[in-house]
Design brief:
By secondary structure, the protein is of the alpha+beta class. It is built from 8 helices and 8 strands. The strands form 2 sheets. A 5-stranded mixed sheet has the order 5-6-8-4-7.
């Protein structure tokens, strides 16, 4: 009981000491602004105040995001398809009409011929809620040879951009209020500098969010239309086209190689002429050498030379 009463009696004393120490360490100005030593905390630079506000708003946005219910998923959908039809140009035109009817638009289209066969390609931007319907209806233009789709989840990116945009908008509002309340040129310049920087960041983030929203709301579908080329086996017309194509390739190759063939032929003929001339010289010089050897080895010739040498004075 004594210890309990002692603790109860000491509580007012501890509270009084705390107030005295707090009064010695800090004081309140005439305008009610807290100060520490000689530094007026109410006269903080606008940029520092904006940074503090931005940090507080960021924490608020993150806490609100953590406690908020699940948001709708943001999915970017794209696809590719190939349709075999007897008239690719007509099929591409009808497909374009369908896209416009469902509220989409044509981003790119082309028509051409390959091996005397018509070909068409269309890239369409379709409302996301109509994508599956359009993809399933491609069989009305011909035989759908293959299809492929790709989904990209950008929910996290959209959520992050939304939070950052909100933070920047609140920060810009606070900086505008600081500009209105600025009492010196330095404060006004600092606030304007911070406002310009945050406005540029806000514009960039807003553009990114708008692009993601457009990609999510409008899906992309690339469709290629081509004719049903005979693939059952041999055909005379097909063989003739292949033969003409091979002749074209061979002729082009010969045309490219012709200068090198001429140079190679000249070098070959020159080497052949040099070798033939050398062989002719060797053939012409061989009998003379044999006759000289025979004359040198003849006994009669040797005797005559000995006699002549003895008769000589």
């Amino acid at each position: 009981m004594k210890s309990t009463s002692i603790r109860a009696a000491s509580l007012p004393v501890i509270a009084a000491l705390t107030l005295v120490l707090a009064g010695c360490g800090s004081s309140s100005g005439a305008d009610g602004t807290a100060s520490y030593g000689n530094v007026d905390m109410g006269a903080a630079m606008p940029s520092e105040q904006a940074a503090a506000d931005m940090g507080a708003v960021t924490e608020q946005a993150l806490s609100a995001e953590a406690g908020s219910p699940a948001v709708n998923a943001s999915i970017i959908v794209s696809g590719d398809a190939t349709v075999i039809t007897g008239n690719p140009r007509d099929a591409a035109a009808k497909f374009t009409e369908q896209i416009l009817e469902v509220g989409g638009r044509i981003e790119w289209s082309s028509t051409s011929e390959y091996d005397s066969q018509p070909y068409a390609s269309v890239t369409a931007r379709i409302p996301a809620d109509k994508f599956d319907e359009v993809l399933a209806g491609l069989d009305q233009y011909g035989t759908v040879q293959n299809t492929s789709t790709f989904n990209e989840d950008v929910t996290q990116q959209v959520t992050d951009l939304d939070a950052r945009i909100k933070v920047l908008e609140d920060s810009i509002t606070r900086l505008q209020n600081l500009m209105d309340q600025a009492t010196s040129v330095d404060e006004l310049i600092a606030a304007e500098s911070g406002l310009t920087q945050r406005q540029a960041e806000l514009d960039s983030l807003t553009a990114q969010l708008e692009w993601l929203d457009s990609q999510v709301s409008m899906s992309t579908l690339n469709v290629s239309f081509s004719t049903d080329v005979d693939s059952t086996g041999f055909s005379l017309g097909k063989a003739w086209q292949i033969f003409l194509k091979s002749l074209e390739v061979v002729g082009y190759g010969l045309l490219v190689a012709l200068p090198w063939l001429v140079i190679a032929a000249i070098i070959f003929l020159l080497v052949r002429w040099i070798l033939a001339k050398r062989r002719a010289k060797l053939a012409a010089g061989t009998p003379n050498a044999d006759e000289d050897d025979a004359a040198n080895n003849d006994p009669e010739t040797l005797d005559v030379e000995v006699v002549e040498a003895e008769d000589a004075p």
